Each structure stands twice: as structure tokens, then as C-alpha cells.
């Protein structure tokens, strides 16, 4: 995908209706030949809209006006470029736990969770958060740091009890320490402007995780996974899961990871954009929404639900 097309897609399919500021910025970038040429000088994986906008925010640049943003970013390109090369798009959106919870709760308990692409590991605590599905009452631990609200359609198998998680670990190329203020400020810059609820969720989850930091391992998605699986406790159902990780792997790396996870004695829960796992999307028996980015939540390669990218809605597909 050409860079201008990427930014237009981001404006129209990802942030429209969610962040007016980012929609305007993305359309502005898509029409600015000078900035596009600078972005095209980066490795392809580093040209992402989220990464550019977060880097400018992290450096204190303006994101409230497209003209000011374009001017400032071009003038400070060396700093912006350095930040984009040094950091990754590691949006640690705990709202995605609302997409994962019905799947996790239905598996044989107890669970040993391994998250690939864990970032700061905040999605390793699905049993610690509170949930509200549709019009149903809120449920979850009374001391849960945040409540995750999720619109629903279809016969969502809302859990009657929380998963019994006895072990949890994360794998990431560059794990984020929840006790590192600079690193967590970067996570805050990855939350889109105007999404105050998402920012509050992030801060609440970080506060909880600082009291009980997750076990995170630095490593490649495929190469590091077998060793981590081998460390899971006996008697637990080992679950390897990931959300919004595959956009950062090329096709070869993605296929290698899928082959590795399928060859391990684990249950595999994926929550990715519909186009990222063709083996999953090909098994979908209905059309995807055309006006928004849609994720598919799947178990062992079988799609169970269409979901919002941040866990904001869930359409259960049934058997």
C-alpha cells in the first residue's frame, strides 16, 4: 500500500468517528507531498500513521491543527524520525480483553496465559478487570481497576465466572516496564486524542500492573515461543494469544509464527484484523462490515466473533 493510501485508509476506516483530530491529520499527511517523501525514507514498517502521530505528541508537537502539524513535523523531522525509529507502535489496549474473555472462560481451567506482542503486558490480566456486555450488569472483581464496556450482537456466551489464571507471561521484541515513567508516557501518546475513556483505562490498568508487574520476556514471536510454553505449569491449559500483532510481521514471519504455534501443545486465541490471517478469514461464513476496520477473534484458527479493534463491540458468530 502506498503511503498516501495508507493514511487515507487510516482516516476513513480506523479513526473516523473515533478521533476527529487524527482523521484530519491523516488526510492532511495524505495530501502533503513533502511530508510523504520524508515518511517514505523510513523502513516500510515505520511509516505507520499511529507511530508518526504518537512520535510528534511525545516530542511535544501540535496535533490539534493539520497545518500546524504538517509544518512542525517537517521542520523537526530529524527528531521525529529518530523517535519513530527508536520506538514501536505498542498500543496496549486492555479493552481487547472484552473480546478475549468469552473464549478464555470457556476453555478447560485453570489457564496459563502467554501473550505474544505483549507490550507492557496489560492484556495478561483479563481476570482482574470488570466487564459490561451490552445491557447486562457489570461483573468481575470488585476491586477491578477499570470497567470494560462492550456493545454486543448475537448470542455472546457471557461468562458466569472469571477465568482461573494460575500463570501468565508475555513475549515481545521490546517489552515495556510498567514502572518506567518514560515508557508508559509513550503508551499514553499512542491513545488517540479525544479518547479520554481509553486513556483512563490505560492509566487504571497501569496502576494495577505496577503493584504486580507481569513477567515479560524479550524475544521473537516464533523463536521465543516454544521456550516460554515449556515453562508453563503442568495441569494448566496453556493459551497463546495475541491482538493486533500481525500487522507488524511480514508474510513470511507471520506464516512462520502460525506454523510454530500450531505445532505446540497449546490453545491458540487470535484477535487480529480480518485480512491478517487468511486461514481464519476464509472460514468466515458472512460478510464483514464495509465501513469500519473489523477484527476476528478465533480459537485454534476458527473464527468465533467479529470484534472492534479496541474491544468496543463484539458480534458473536455462533457455532
Give start-end ranges of low-pLDDT stretches. Answer: none
Structural class: alpha/beta
One letter per element, helices H and strands E, the order comes to: HHHHHHHEEEEHHEHEHEHEEE
Give the distance, in angstroms, between the N- and C-terminal Cα atoms. 35 Å
If you compute it from the alpha carbons, what radius of gyration comes out, rounded to the nearest whole angstrom? 19 Å
What fold name goes in the CATH topology slot of the largest domain?
Answer: Rossmann fold
Q: Could you give a short account of the major beta sheet?
A: 10 strands, mixed
Please count the beta strands (DSSP E, at least 2 residues each).
Answer: 10
Average of the residue pLDDT scores: 94
Residue share in helices? 25-40%
Number of helices: 12
Order of adjacent strands in the largest pleated sheet? 2-3-10-9-8-7-6-1-4-5
The rough form would be described as globular
Q: How many domains, as an integer?
A: 2
- Strand-residue proportion: 15-25%
How would you briefly describe this protein structure?
With 319 residues, the chain is of the alpha/beta class. The chain has twelve helices and ten strands. It has helices at residues 3-15, 20-30, 33-39, 49-58, 66-75, 77-86, 97-105, 181-189, 196-211, 225-230, 251-262, 278-281; strands spanning 111-116, 130-133, 147-153, 165-172, 215-218, 237-243, 267-273, 295-299, 302-307, 313-316.
Amino acid at each position: 500500500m502506498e503511503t498516501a493510501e495508507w493514511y487515507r485508509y487510516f482516516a476513513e476506516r480506523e479513526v473516523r468517528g473515533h478521533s476527529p483530530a487524527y482523521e484530519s491529520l491523516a488526510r492532511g499527511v495524505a495530501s502533503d507531498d513533502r511530508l510523504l517523501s520524508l515518511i517514505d525514507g523510513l523502513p516500510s514498517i515505520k511509516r505507520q500513521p499511529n507511530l508518526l502521530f504518537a512520535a510528534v505528541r511525545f516530542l511535544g508537537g501540535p496535533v490539534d491543527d493539520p497545518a500546524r502539524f504538517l509544518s512542525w513535523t517537517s521542520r523537526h523531522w530529524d527528531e521525529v524520525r529518530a523517535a519513530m525509529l527508536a520506538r514501536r507502535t505498542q498500543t496496549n489496549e486492555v479493552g481487547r480483553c472484552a473480546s478475549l474473555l468469552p473464549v478464555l472462560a470457556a476453555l478447560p481451567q485453570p489457564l496459563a496465559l502467554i501473550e505474544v506482542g505483549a507490550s507492557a503486558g496489560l492484556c495478561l490480566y483479563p481476570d482482574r478487570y470488570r466487564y459490561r456486555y451490552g445491557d447486562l450488569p457489570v461483573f468481575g472483581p470488585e476491586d477491578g481497576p477499570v470497567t470494560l464496556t462492550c456493545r454486543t450482537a448475537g448470542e455472546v456466551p457471557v461468562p458466569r465466572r472469571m477465568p482461573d489464571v494460575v500463570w501468565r507471561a508475555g513475549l515481545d521484541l521490546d517489552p515495556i516496564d510498567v514502572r518506567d515513567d518514560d515508557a508508559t508516557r509513550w503508551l499514553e501518546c499512542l491513545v488517540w486524542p479525544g479518547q479520554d475513556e481509553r486513556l483512563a483505562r490505560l492509566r487504571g490498568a497501569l496502576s494495577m500492573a505496577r503493584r504486580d508487574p507481569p513477567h515479560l520476556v524479550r524475544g521473537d514471536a516464533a523463536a521465543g515461543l516454544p521456550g516460554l510454553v515449556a515453562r508453563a505449569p503442568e495441569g494448566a491449559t496453556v493459551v497463546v494469544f495475541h491482538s493486533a500483532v500481525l500487522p507488524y510481521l511480514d508474510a513470511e514471519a507471520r506464516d512462520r509464527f502460525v506454523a510454530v504455534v500450531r505445532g505446540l501443545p497449546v490453545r491458540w486465541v487470535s484477535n487480529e484484523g480480518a485480512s491478517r490471517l487468511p486461514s481464519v478469514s476464509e472460514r468466515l461464513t458472512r460478510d464483514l462490515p464495509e465501513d469500519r476496520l473489523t477484527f476476528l477473534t478465533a480459537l485454534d484458527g476458527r473464527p468465533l466473533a467479529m470484534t472492534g479493534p479496541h474491544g468496543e463491540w463484539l458480534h458473536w458468530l455462533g457455532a
